[in-house]
Amino acid sequence: MAANGGTKAILAALFANAGIAVAKFVGFLITGSSSMLAESVHSVADTSNQGLLLLGQKTSLRKATKQHPFGFGRDRYFYSFIVALMLFTLGSAFALYEGIHKVQHPEELNSAIVAVVILVLAIALETYSFRTAIVESRKVKGDATWWGFIRQSRTPELPVVLLEDAGALFGLVFALMGVGLSVLTGEPIWDGIGTIMIGILLGVIAIILIIEMKSLLIGEGATAREHEIIVDELTGGRVERVIHIRTQYLGPDELLVAAKLALTPGLQTAEIASTIDEVEGRVRARVPAARLIYLEPDLDRGL
């Protein structure tokens, strides 16, 4: 569900941003607004980002090889990290540069009403994309807060699209404010200020995504709830306790579980094997992502 929902949200954002980018560039050529130019580059970056997310989903499905025995699931983390870098460089850095330049050298806007109309239409399209991301995210976020979902999700696409769409909506509002205040006050410097606000917003979002995607790329373990469930299912019956356990997500849908278990003394080899099989089945039934489970039987030495 998470993968399909992520794909649906990505495609909605892709088509929305592609159309918005064209409209914004036309608006910039007519008005000369720096806010429109910054938003145009922002939309182009977002469109490219959604393409990268789709590419990551595709390449992550490659079969495991001898060189990569655990497969390529982390491709989705890698491309999400690249998306965060692009948002920072193409979106934030360009907007800050253009905004500072326009504040230092203000230029009168031409046909500002064209920019307003385009921005209002862009807000409508971006709202549709954002709503799609919210609907799909609700299916997998459970009881977590939105901030908790962004921080704890092991599936990168939905948090990325959510933050991108939120940034796009606020960026459009800032652009609309910049253009509107420039017209109302007759001071084109407001257009530059709106552009700077867009740059700061994108920078903050990019830094959050860079931190989160870097953590996933390095390797994160099971969530606190998943860890609790796994330990509960590992114990009981012939398993006296879990001596130690390590978990790590090899991809959004594949969790590696390695644990040493203290078994009841005196078990025969067949009993040990059946106990391990039983425990693995219980864990997979409760945590489907736990596809790779390596369990080492041992005696409880009180360590």
From TrEMBL:
Residue intervals passing through the bilayer: 9-30, 77-97, 109-130, 160-183, 189-211
A Pfam short name: Cation_efflux
Gene Ontology terms: biological process: zinc ion transport
N-terminal signal peptide: none
CC terms in the record's Gene Ontology section: membrane
Matching InterPro entries: Cation_efflux, Cation_efflux_TM, Cation_efflux_TMD_sf, SLC30A9
Protein name (Swiss-Prot/TrEMBL): Cation diffusion facilitator family transporter
UniProt source species: Amycolatopsis marina
Lineage: Bacteria, Bacillati, Actinomycetota, Actinomycetes, Pseudonocardiales
